[in-house]
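Appendix B, Record 12. Input sequence as logged:
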Amino acid sequence: MLEALITLAILSIGLVAMAKFQGTLLQSSTLAKNRTIAINLAQNKMEILRSSDFALLSSGSDIIDASIQDNISEHYDRVWTVAGNGTNATIEVTVEWGDYTAKGEVSRNTSIRLVSNISSSSATESGRLIDP
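Logged structural output:
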């Protein structure tokens, strides 16, 4: 009888530890998913800005959530800034979102930032630099 009780206690401790590990694993998976979505949102905006007419580049912001994009379950704030002189510019794209607790409350805001430098030179002007 004592052996059965000890076995039950050890088994209970193991099951509780396994349940806690699974919860941590699920939370880590959600954080990784949110970070991947944020990086994709930043990269998409960066590519749009890099392929735009240099003279028309401007700073701005938007909000992306489930009502706009199907694979999004969170709320993301995306801000981009364009700074520079007449021939060169620095583009910075920042995406911010909230990490949630088990109760559904925002525990902290997390953000990622991408920075890129671009030039106003066209593709034909770039070719001239290589072959005068």
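The chain has one domain: 2-130.
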